[in-house]
Amino acid sequence: MVNHGIPTGVLDNLLRSTREFHEQPKEMRMEFYTRDCTRKVKYYSTGDLYQTKTAQWRDTLSCDFDDTSKIDLGSFPEICRNEIGDYLNRLHGLKNLLAELLSEALGLSSNHLASLECFDIQRLLCHYYPPCPEPDLTIGIMKHSDPYILTILLQDNIGGLQILHKNQWVDVTPVQGSLLVNAGDLLQLITNDHFKSVEHRVVATRAGPRISAACFIYPRNKNQSKPYGPVKELLSDKNPQKYRETSFLDYIHYFGSKGLDGVKALPHFQLISANE
Ligand SMILES: O=C(O)CCC(=O)C(=O)O
Ligand SMILES: [Fe+2]
């Protein structure tokens, strides 16, 4: 548990304005409706609709930043742009603190992970899960692990998020004013399995709407072709390298080509040991 230091008002404003965006008349939302991945701001339902067979009970506003010091808030929907800006400004300190704490937990110098240039605030997904009349027939978001370094998740008090722990789905009960930090696949890869990415899903509920905002940390554009592999300082005879090097772009390409099919992407990058 870490004190995130972000005022509750900033969190509440992001949740409220996300809800307001999604509840606007269709005409206001249509301006942003696209699946064109070159657009920085996108509004869609079920991001991987054409890769998986399952449509999911969720709409998403996706915002890409690359360099958060140069954000053009004007490109975001007016109804939530200031709230997104305020949240991102506050998230910086937390992201840097997490990079330091994780470095220290690995026995590395506190600036080690930051020096790899993969801890950047790159994308915010503002999700809206409408109340569902038949929750047993659908799902809010399918089982997956995030392909990134870290996810910082803000959720409202409706519930529905679950993580897979020892083959059992466990509810992540919302705690007001808290943020949840999930390890992603890329963190698992660079730490050679020290931090494991967590599989999770969101079940549909009759209650709602449920609002959440998932902020993804991964290398910024200029570093996305750079190879990342297990940190050399962590490897030894007892802890041999488990994964081959890959760039963020190659990883995400493989992840995206599968869609959220419930099968992890990470094993595809595993090295086969000589004894196997
Ligand atoms: O809405 C949530 O709580 C989770 C969202 C999520 O898993 C994601 O965007 O990857
Ligand atoms: Fe996720």
TrEMBL record:
<dbReference type="InterPro" id="IPR026992">
    <property type="entry name" value="DIOX_N"/>
</dbReference>
<keyword id="KW-0408">Iron</keyword>
<dbReference type="InterPro" id="IPR027443">
    <property type="entry name" value="IPNS-like_sf"/>
</dbReference>
<dbReference type="InterPro" id="IPR044861">
    <property type="entry name" value="IPNS-like_FE2OG_OXY"/>
</dbReference>
<comment type="similarity">
    <text>Belongs to the iron/ascorbate-dependent oxidoreductase family.</text>
</comment>
<keyword id="KW-0560">Oxidoreductase</keyword>
<protein>
    <submittedName>
        <fullName>1-aminocyclopropane-1-carboxylate oxidase homolog 1-like</fullName>
    </submittedName>
</protein>
<feature type="domain" description="Fe2OG dioxygenase">
    <location>
        <begin position="120"/>
        <end position="219"/>
    </location>
</feature>
<dbReference type="Pfam" id="PF03171">
    <property type="entry name" value="2OG-FeII_Oxy"/>
</dbReference>
<dbReference type="InterPro" id="IPR005123">
    <property type="entry name" value="Oxoglu/Fe-dep_dioxygenase_dom"/>
</dbReference>
<keyword id="KW-0479">Metal-binding</keyword>
<dbReference type="Pfam" id="PF14226">
    <property type="entry name" value="DIOX_N"/>
</dbReference>
